NADP-dependent 3-hydroxy acid dehydrogenase YdfG (Azorhizobium oxalatiphilum), 270 residues
Amino acid sequence: MTTLSTLAGTALVTGASTGIGAVYADRLARRGHDLVLVARDVARMEALATRLRAETGRTVEVLPADLATQEGRARIAGRLADDAAISVLVNNAGLALEGDLLQNGTEDLERLVSVNVTAPTVLAAAAAKAFAARGAGAIINLSSVLALAPELSGSAYSGSKAYVLNLSQKLALVLKDTGVRVQAVLPGATRTEIWEKTGTDIDAILPGKVMAVGDLVDAALAGFDAGEVVTIPPLADEGLWTAHEAARIALLPNLSERLPAERYRVPVAA
């Protein structure tokens, strides 16, 4: 089984200037990977790159891009397609909004979809094609526990994370015989800047339940090494996820029939 320890080469991490992406960069460099850091904040990436070069001796490149734009996505997708040294993609870049659909305008909603849905799709596709052709690679997509709990967040954000989960599960099936691993990571509340940016006091909402970023990433990497397709770092009882998946799979043979279910059939008037 492919693990990150057995994959030589470079890891490309999006959203790498801070938070989860920056910690993934740190951990992967310490595991022996060179890095390509992708985000908009060049100053922060340069500071991180300087520290990691000094502490790990790895090669760290800063590649600025705005993944909300077609140009930015094309630039990173092209790098994934053309650079044979890249063996790991961490699709971490994400955007949240304060409020829900009724409180946000079209431009903000389109930007969220561009970053949270379009970018991971385009980059995962580019990486999947390149990695499969070489017979090895890893794609790590950051989803969220909100993919399973739309009641707890804005509909656009939770919907985007549900998309990433579905994308990852199907892509893992598509690539299962190619030597390429796919993992969806579903963080719970994690102590990152995203809460400040959306004006949310997460400690007031979930006192004592906010995970440190380092703990989150270390758990996610342990899940990858264990062979998981879906990793939920805060979930203590793995049986709950197993039961959830079993119930979902049990639905599959019943989701397409020639006639509507009996409870939906309207009696024909005499």
